[in-house]
Design a protein that fits this description.
Largest sheet: 3 strands, antiparallel
Strand order of the largest sheet: 1-2-3
Radius of gyration: 24 Å
Distance between the termini: 55 Å
Bound molecules: zinc ion
Order of helices and strands: EEEHEEHEEHHEHEEEEHHHHH
Strand content: 15-25%
Helix content: 25-40%
Structural class: alpha+beta
Number of helices: 10
Length: about 325
């Protein structure tokens, strides 16, 4: 006869998602057009890349190309808030999102995408838990477990297709929770926790010997996140499930950096450049730093399949990266 005794040994990995977890991250400041004066001693006149006429006097350098100021203003990126051409200090996120720095600083920021809620993002919606969402994010907010479940199938499929990890037959419970419950359950100090995974395994005693019982895995996702962000969070958390089964004792930068990489790769494949850019520029040393170090480690490797095999044995990222 078998006696089963639950030891209550709990192996709980609390793996909260870091990327874009807080609202105070400022996208890159960069790509400022500079106004310069042409140097008359330089041989040959410099043609404007827009009108192809030579430039006399002052010119604008933008993306390392030279323009007449009027020509630049015709092709200049426009501010996502006031819609006017950007000349002077700019704040940008990826290729598509450009703002005058003063406009950017004045507008409330979306807690999901971190962009200003004003202007092209369609205004602000205040959620009952204190979060602020832009119109774009609120437009695809996932509020029911049913909707989340269908996205979970998509996330499992994307993980299989893009990262060669098939978890479709692993029993995983999916839960949606509000902001306060997420923070409490994850026990992680962040203003907003978007996702985390709990993997528990209890030892069982069979005939006087202890055996490891099966994993009980739960993925928690924050309620009301926009659709594509939810898929990203799910891919990240599913990558943690793979880690639990294959390499459960990695350093936080390797664990989070590689999970962020999986998330980033799926988001890129789905053409979700905004959500991918947020991972690329995440200033957090574990999440963003881990992602960048993981990516440069990966570039030295020949293929994803080989990298995945190495990842099983790795405890940390190489220090030289
Ligand atoms: Zn994580
Ligand atoms: Zn010109
Ligand atoms: Zn503006
Ligand atoms: Zn948003």
């Amino acid at each position: 006869m078998r006696t089963l005794r639950e030891l209550g040994v709990l192996f709980a990995l609390l793996l909260p998602l870091g990327a874009c977890q807080s609202s105070d991250k400022v996208p890159d400041k960069g790509k400022r057009p500079e106004l310069k004066s042409s140097n008359p001693t330089v041989r040959g006149r410099r043609p404007c890349v827009h009108c192809h006429q030579n430039i006399d006097g002052s010119y604008v350098v933008y993306n390392k190309k030279q323009f007449h100021k009027e020509c630049y203003l015709r092709v200049a990126p426009r501010c996502g808030i006031c819609q006017r051409s950007i000349f002077g200090s700019a704040t940008t996120l990826g290729e598509r999102y450009n703002y005058h720095t003063p406009c950017f600083s004045r507008s409330p920021r979306c807690d999901a995408c971190s962009l200003p809620t004003e202007g092209s993002r369609g205004g602000v919606t205040k959620l009952s838990d204190g979060r602020k969402h832009c119109g774009e994010c609120q437009g695809t907010a996932i509020n029911t477990l049913n909707d989340a479940r269908s996205l979970f199938s998509t996330a499992l499929l994307e993980l299989h297709r893009n990262l060669d990890i098939d978890l479709r037959s692993v029993p995983i419970e999916l839960k949606l929770a509000d902001r306060a419950s997420m923070s409490k359950l994850a026990d992680f100090k962040a203003p907003i926790v978007k996702g985390f995974t709990v993997a528990e395994r209890k030892d069982v005693k069979i005939g006087g010997r202890f055996y490891q019982g099966p994993w009980k895995i739960t993925i928690w996702v924050l309620k009301s996140l926009p659709r594509e962000a939810v898929i990203g969070v799910m891919v990240h958390e599913l990558f943690h499930v793979w880690q639990v089964q294959n390499c459960p004792t990695q350093s936080p930068p390797l664990r989070e950096g590689s999970a962020n990489y999986a998330q980033w790769r799926v988001l890129k494949k789905r053409q979700q450049m905004l959500w991918a850019a947020l991972i690329e520029m995440d200033p957090d040393p574990v999440y963003g730093g881990g992602f960048r170090r993981f990516q440069s480690w990966l570039q030295k490797d020949e293929a994803w399949g080989a990298a995945l095999a190495k990842l099983r044995q790795m405890k940390d990222l190489p220090a030289s990266n």
